[in-house]
Amino acid sequence: MLTLTVDIEQYASSGSEGRFLQSLQPLLNILTSLEAQVTFFIVGDLVHKSVPLIRELHENGHEIALHGYSHQFLKDLGPTKFRSELIKGKELIEDIVQEPTIGFRAPYFSLTKEVLWAPEILGSEGFVYSSSVLPSFNPQSGYPEAPREPFRWPNGLIEFPSPTLGLGKFRLPILGGAYLRLSPKLLVKVAQRISTKKQGAWSYCHPYDFDIDEEFKVREENGWLFSKLLFARRHLMLNRIKDIVTTGSLSLGQIANTASVTNQFSIWDPLQKS
After folding, report:
1. In this predicted model, what pLDDT tens digit does every residue of 148-159 receive, in sequence order?
2. Helix%, strand%, coil% for the chain, nearest 5
3. Could you tell me the pLDDT band of residue 64, with boundaries at 50, 70 and 90?
């Protein structure tokens, strides 16, 4: 079974009131019809703008998790600022949903071998799981040495790495974001078939993936070409999600809580020599 996750983060047109909800409403309708529970990772500095949305999502049984506070690479934050932002974002969400926030996703999947202090901080601040590792080569934030199956860090924190398809270090997370829209449907089906055999497999998307009315703008951090890819084929996204989301799917938090009780997933220590 594949879990859907949604990363709620700032994008060019998201400043207008209700933009997130407007972009997500068709997706939410599908999730309701399928009785599927998914995980929404929200950036902390957007929480105060998104209180009605967060409440609606939580009331409908979806998990609310943290996508960092300021949407920066972890290596740019450093341990001290990372901890302080983690605490702040966690408290903001918990004040709204009135239950512990146990899930975290690093912006840009930036939990790499350069920031191995992050899992320890996450565990010490009460997080049960992370979904922050891209186990493939990537010029920004890949971690090709990391396991491709769910695992535990040495402190017990559960990691759900991004599902990928490819050979060796050259693998792509085609079950999410622009990859899901741009990849041939047959390739997506192959990736889905492989991933659904693994517990804790997930897909990801963003509100802007469904925002077909957004006017094209070059994102400074992405450049012209990648910005074009972020806008391409958005009209296909809803149908791609329909193809991969299954009836009664669970949130990552539900899977992590079960795994914690049953002590599932092996420990991987990146500092231990094999």
Report:
1. 999 999 999 999
2. 45, 15, 45
3. very high
Beta carbons within 10 angstroms of residue 67's beta carbon:
24
Residue 92 token pair: 């903001």
Q: Which amino acid is at 2?
A: L
Say which CATH number the domain at 96 has: 3.20.20.370
Does 211 map to a domain?
yes
What pLDDT was estimated at residue 12?
Answer: 61
Shortest CA distance to 157 belongs to which of 115, 102, 107?
A: 102
Q: What pLDDT, in 10s, does the model give residues 255-272?
A: 999 999 989 999 999 998
CA 261 to chain CA centroid, nearest Å = 23
Residue 239: which domain range?
3-262
Q: Name the nearest CA neighbour of 255 among 201, 179, 211.
A: 201
270 belongs to a structural domain:
no
Instruction: Tell me if 267 is assigned to some domain.
Output: no
